[in-house]
Amino acid sequence: MAGDYIGYVESMRHRYPNLRRFCDIQGTSHRQNKEETSRVVVIEIRENGISQKKFDAPDDLDRYMQGPPSTSEPCKHRVYVLEGSAPAYVQVLGRRLRMDPFVFSEQLMRGGTRKEQAATLPSQHGPERSFSMQYVESRTFPDGHLNTLGACCLYQDRKIWATKINSKFDEVAKVHRIASFWSRKEPNGDFNGLILVDPPVGELIKIGKAAKKEIRRCQNNLYQGGYVDISPFPCALSLDKDWESQPGPSRESLFDDILFYWNHIDRFPNLHSSIIEGPAGFFDGASFFLKSIIAANWMQFLVYFDEIIDRLEYALARADINALDGVENHLVDVAHWHRRCWKSCEQVEHAIHALQPDLRLNQDSSLTTGSVFTSIADFVYIHKKLCALTKRCQRLSLSLTNVISVIQSRQASEEAHSLKILTLLGMLFVPLTFLSGIFSMSGEFLPGESSFWVYIVVSIPAVVMVFLVVFSKEVAQFLKLKEKQRKSLLNVRLTARPPASAHGEAKDVEKG
């Protein structure tokens, strides 16, 4: 039908393979997550302030975008915030904003991988500016509620990575999240922006793989209370008066947290004026809260990651040097965390290049380009910390490999010692058995009889001969060493004796 945005995107899936994920989820023929609900709020940015408007249904949003109500103070810019990916809201926003469907496709990407995604060249992008960022939300699942590796969120299949340490599940899990931002300057000079965020984790999660997933209630909480407030700390405090409790974000829903900071934009000096100024200011300022919250979540993950590495290093220091299985389990854990940290470095680097494509992380590049709300410096710092943790994982992995080599060498030495003892016993009993077979010991040669001594007299030289033949090299070296010691002792004695000529000269002097 005319004006069908999702149908229009479906018609292009053969031209653009990286839209297949979008069509598989949002397409009318095989639409997934039919019961998913979304929330939408528009943030109206005016010269004299900011206001918010919530929409209860897609029709309300459509009517608003078709002809926004006129007010005494015209709205200069608008930022729409969408939680979830309900097809009805995607239909309205995509059609009214004439959005590039790749933005929705990136947001709907599977958890943790880029399967069914094809990269696009920078030259293929239109006048819009957009980015998609992946990040990790750390949450605790107490009392062993999460004891499987195949878990994901109820909607959009965001993966929940359970942590295993020494083959035991840890209470803290990492929830994969994606957030996106899109903006464009309209012909009349105004700006429209869209923020796409994931729904909160909630207590209902999916357990299992493929079509065998089951929905299970799983209680979970924020790790250490969630990320640190991104608001600047008020340094100019007057302690002479009573202060009321300062509200903070809930940290349970990124959607609610973004709206909270927009309501308290006065905590961030110059942010409102920066958004009003121009294109760069709108792109950096309108996405500032989103970028800052993502960076704060990464910092929370760094705290947990550092704790994990400390625990693994402490376990190595206290480990029994003979417990090979335990050390191998630690090596598997370190390999998992090394991969996870390396993947996190990739995700943060992707975010940095999305914000500043010309930045070279391996060179001393300037971070002062753009406004003060670009948040580039925060992500560069996070990237450096992740690289440092990756190197710690590499060093720990090398240490564990060396410990395993020491344990295996010790075990090989013990096995060689045991084999040597068995060989010596065999060398002792084989000639005895051989001689008893030759003599066909019977009658008077049996043990306890009168001629049994003949067997002993013959066996002893045979055993000695066998040992001499086997250890002939060692015996020869021993004899050479004794001969060398004897010659050295003789040389010492000859050197200590006084010369005969000097003694004779002394006697001649006395006679004269």
Question: What can you see in these coordinates?
Answer:
With 512 residues, the protein is of the alpha+beta class. It has two domains: 11-237 and 249-407, no CATH class; 426-511, no CATH class. 48% of the residues lie in helices and 15% in strands. It has helices at 5-10, 20-26, 58-66, 87-97, 101-107, 254-263, 271-277, 279-286, 288-318, 324-355, 376-439, 452-470, 472-496, 500-511, and strands at residues 39-46, 49-55, 77-83, 129-140, 151-153, 159-165, 168-185, 191-197, 204-207, 214-217, 221-222. A hairpin with a 5-residue loop joins β7 (168-185) and β8 (191-197). The chain is elongated and about 130 Å long.
Number of helices: 14
By secondary-structure content and strand pairing, the structural class works out as: alpha+beta
Rg value: 40 Å
Following the backbone from N to C, one meets helices and strands in this order, namely HHEEHEHHEEEEEEEEHHHHHHHHH
Number of domains: 2
> Main beta sheet: strand number and arrangement?
11 strands, mixed
Given as residue ranges, the uncertain stretches (5+ residues, pLDDT < 50) are: none
Strand content: 15-25%
Distance between the termini: 145 Å
- The overall strand count is 11
Helix content: 40-55%
GO molecular function: metal ion transmembrane transporter activity
Transmembrane segments: 419-440, 452-472
Subcellular location: Membrane
Membrane topology: Multi-pass membrane protein
